[in-house]
Design a protein that fits this description.
CATH superfamily: Uracil-DNA glycosylase-like domain
CATH architecture: 3-Layer(aba) Sandwich
Protein name: Uracil-DNA glycosylase family protein
Order of helices and strands: HEHHHEEEHEHHEHH
Strand order of the largest sheet: 2-1-5-6
Mean pLDDT: 95
Number of helices: 9
CATH class: Alpha Beta
Distance between the termini: 33 Å
CATH topology: Uracil-DNA Glycosylase, subunit E
Largest sheet: 4 strands, parallel
Shape: globular
Pfam families: UDG
Bound molecules: iron/sulfur cluster
Number of domains: 1
Length: 197
């Protein structure tokens, strides 16, 4: 069995956080080892855990609109790899979902990323992913405002959740300046690949 197949199997069977999660471990990710675009997110929510598919919700609809892609393209692992910072739903606290389990990135992230070939763009969603992938030392708004420092290899994004509507309204430059550049780059990167046309 190849290293990639072993990795996929080992993640699917991971029990590292058993007893530390509200439910039995259920990793939810999309391994696209040859995809040009990585989506580095936070962690599945409760609904995503039930459905078993990353971004199969209003957040995903908005993210796909930001990218200018269809569901079919989004869920094509030859186009997109989807790796949350924590692969399993971490539970909910008084202020919303808990942070991704730190064990997950510590144990899996480098092993998985090193198997990716040809990544051209990392879309880095939320504070936890921005700390890990971009070594961000600033808050999310400042990191996203400073997006050109990472572009075009990576792009920090706010979470596309409807809970962020107020952030999006308060920061109109994001839709005006960042999204057109993002959509143009995604179109360039996916041009000619399976699933685009
Ligand atoms: S969160 Fe990650 S490390 Fe923890 S059980 Fe799930 S897959 Fe394993």
């Amino acid at each position: 069995m190849t290293t990639k197949a072993n990795l996929a199997r080992d993640i699917a069977n991971c029990q590292l956080c058993a007893g530390l999660l509200p439910d039995p471990p259920k990793p939810i990710l999309q391994l696209g080892f040859n995809a040009p675009i990585l989506i580095a997110g936070q962690a599945p929510g409760r609904l995503t855990r039930v459905r078993g598919l990353a971004f199969d919700d209003a957040s995903g609809d908005r993210l796909r609109a930001w990218l200018g892609v269809t569901r079919e393209q989004f869920y094509n692992p030859s186009l997109f790899s989807i790796l949350p910072m924590g692969f399993c739903y971490p539970g909910t606290g008084t202020n919303g979902d808990l942070a991704p389990r730190a064990e997950c990135a510590a144990h899996w992230r480098r092993k998985v990323l090193i198997q990716h070939e040809g990544l051209a763009l990392q879309l880095v969603i939320g504070h936890y992913a921005q700390q890990w992938h971009l070594n961000s030392q600033t808050n999310l708004t400042e990191t996203v405002r400073n997006w050109r420092a990472f572009w075009p290899a990576a792009l920090p994004l706010p979470h596309p959740s409807p809970r962020n509507n107020r952030w999006l309204k308060a920061n109109p430059w994001f839709a005006e300046q960042v999204l057109p550049e993002l959509q143009a780059q995604v179109t360039r990167l996916l041009a000619g690949r399976a699933g685009l046309y």
